[in-house]
């Protein structure tokens, strides 16, 4: 067998993929868990869990909000992982984030259109629009540090884009933590002000990516 044929056979074999080092998944889980725990502790100390959370959890709008944020968490996590694989196809990745956003915006627009005119401003602005994005951004900081540390252990090549994806994932996780405190349920509010809060760590991740993710 020629050397070139041997190389081609090994490269196309089923066992080519490099296995992660022993304990890699445990370490990754510990890093992300520490960031999540720090975010929850920050929320509990500075904001507190909503006293009527049990009553809110009985409402469909609460689970629509939580489901929307979870979808963004999963989509951003997948996008971030793909951007850490050199040469991986990323053509369809924007759709993963765009789909839940478009669905939430469509639901918000439908609710606003059907609401009486005097209620539309309240449905969009709510009572916490001034603080909501800033609080989500604040809660995302320990998560952003954890996510960037995890991504640095992989092999991102487009550092600014990978940093932005990591920042969006951190912002989505922070928004999920913020759901334990936030009283707002309107789709129009969540689809705008929550996302605005997620964009702050996204921008921060994009700025830090070239420095934090470089080998």
UniProtKB/TrEMBL annotation:
InterPro entries: NrsF (IPR009495). Keywords: Membrane, Transmembrane, Transmembrane helix. Pfam families: NrsF. It comes from the Bacteria. The chain crosses the membrane at residues 30-50, 62-80, 92-112, 124-147, 159-178, 190-209. The keyword Membrane applies. This is DUF1109 family protein. It comes from Janthinobacterium violaceinigrum.
């Amino acid at each position: 067998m020629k050397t070139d044929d041997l190389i081609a056979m090994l490269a196309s074999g089923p066992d080519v993929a490099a296995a992660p080092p022993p304990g890699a998944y445990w370490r990754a889980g510990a890093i992300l868990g520490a960031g999540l725990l720090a975010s929850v502790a920050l929320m509990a100390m500075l904001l507190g869990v909503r006293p009527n959370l049990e009553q809110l959890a009985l409402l469909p709008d609460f689970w629509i909000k939580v489901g929307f944020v979870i979808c963004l968490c999963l989509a951003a996590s997948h996008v971030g992982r793909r951007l850490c694989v050199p040469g991986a196809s990323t053509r369809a990745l924007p759709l993963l984030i765009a789909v839940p956003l478009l669905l939430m915006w469509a639901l918000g627009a439908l609710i606003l259109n059907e609401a009486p005119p005097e209620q539309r401003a309240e449905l969009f602005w709510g009572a916490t629009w001034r603080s909501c994005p800033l609080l989500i951004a604040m809660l995302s900081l320990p998560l952003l540090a954890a996510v960037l540390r995890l991504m640095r252990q992989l092999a991102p090549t487009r550092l600014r884009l990978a940093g932005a994806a990591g920042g969006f994932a951190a912002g989505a996780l922070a928004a999920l933590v913020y759901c334990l405190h936030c009283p707002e349920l309107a789709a129009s509010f969540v689809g705008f002000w929550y996302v605005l809060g997620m964009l702050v760590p996204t921008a921060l991740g994009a700025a830090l990516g070239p420095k934090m993710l470089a080998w």
